[in-house]
Amino acid sequence: MDAIRNPHKPRPAGEWVIGEMARQCWASAILIATPTAQTRFVDSCQIYLDAVIQEADDRAKGRIRSLDDYFEIRRATVGVEPSFAVGELYLNIPQEVIDQPIISRLKAIAVDLITIANDIYSYKVEWERGEDSHNLVTVVIQQFRLTIQGAMDYIGDLNARLVDEFLEKWNHIPVFDGPVDTDIRAYCVMLAEWVRGNDSWSFEGGRYFGDKGREIQTTRLVRLTGIRGEKKISTSCRG
């Protein structure tokens, strides 16, 4: 964060290379980023990194949060808001416009949709490693005493309701009668594209399903294997 907040300050000798990488990256980005986007990027990075520290502590202690508590921290650890800020670097949108209720809700739904998809798609890898304590599927299993498949169905229903709400809110994006209207429309499109892009990347990137991503994207069937046994589940995440 010091490197991001002070991109023109030389980094200390012997510091981990990520400091200089962050400094150079942000020093280049601010050459084209609007002031409003810069502020939101820096602020959201701080929130993200603080949350990641809490996540690490939760994992170390084996803590499984309640659904509401989990969503509160996961919305930060998923790292989507700093990415949204990158997506708007060329847009000049006042904070009060971002905070307008419909725009704010569209952003919040997009964050939740990306969070839900990420936790569903990463569950196989995390379950097989025994590292699934910080995952929505595990949270739902524990809180509602469901099976893995039952939790997937529960989360799939939640995802579908959020998609419907996003589309309903999309039809009521406000008009501000000024140049910001073009920027806010581009911003909302970016939110929707991020949701869809995350879904595609999850199957195409190989991180979660290896070379089986395309097949699983079609069948929505996932086989969990490893030291914890073997299970077959189906997933539904309508992006």
Automatic annotation (TrEMBL):
Keyword check for Kinase: no
Cofactor(s) of this protein: Mg(2+)
Alphabetized SUPFAM superfamilies for the sequence: Terpenoid synthases
GO BP terms in the entry: isoprenoid biosynthetic process
Keywords tagged on the record: Lyase, Magnesium, Metal-binding
InterPro entries registered for this protein in UniProt: Isoprenoid_synthase_dom_sf, Terpene_cyclase-like_2
Protein family membership: Belongs to the terpene synthase family.
The protein's name: Terpene synthase
